[in-house]
């Protein structure tokens, strides 16, 4: 029943059941509970999650799956220290649990710790999977330090580098660390580009003051792939490059103007001192 609630994203109902039952939980049920608390991430979820963790039998703490869900939950609560305390004593750590720890560091603004975790994985001869590489690329994006990016990318196996999710993350990473040529090289190699691929490249142009190129790519992007993120990215690019005519044209073409899109257009007009139009 609890698994059904969580599977259908009825997390509050799952927690209601946890509060009603008074039986000894097994490792699977603890895992489901931690996942529900991580998804909700409100005061009630934090109280229940931490209470369940405190009473969880010690032998379950060596279960990679249960401990991974506990670490994920604690990281989403912003409790990095408790997550680290769960992680340290685990004897046979797998790729997934390392991934949960690194993802938590990214979520909590401590991306630099991911590189230490990666070195530990190498020492223990644990090979990152696609998800772990994606998290490491995310850490590089957040650090924005070019040599970190180069160091990590040089170690990603080619069969992983060719995965669309990794390619998209690399475009984003190179754009954020100012290496627009490398971002474009990866973009050009993507065979089956999706919305995220285009958005990452448009944003890379925007971040590096290349508004005209961002607009050109937005125009090349298939209309069915465009979403509100594409529109925000290209309007941001226009804003930073002073491309008022292009911004107006694109804004007027957008049928569903979300609050974020309107805010971005107002920012663009304000930067160009068009205060009356912005109002």
From TrEMBL:
GO terms for biological process, alphabetical: RNA modification
Pfam families in alphabetical order: PPR, PPR_2
Source organism, top-level taxon: Eukaryota
Molecular-function GO term, any one: RNA binding
Mapped PPR repeat ranges: 94-128, 194-224
Coiled-coil residues: none
Record's protein name: Pentatricopeptide repeat-containing protein
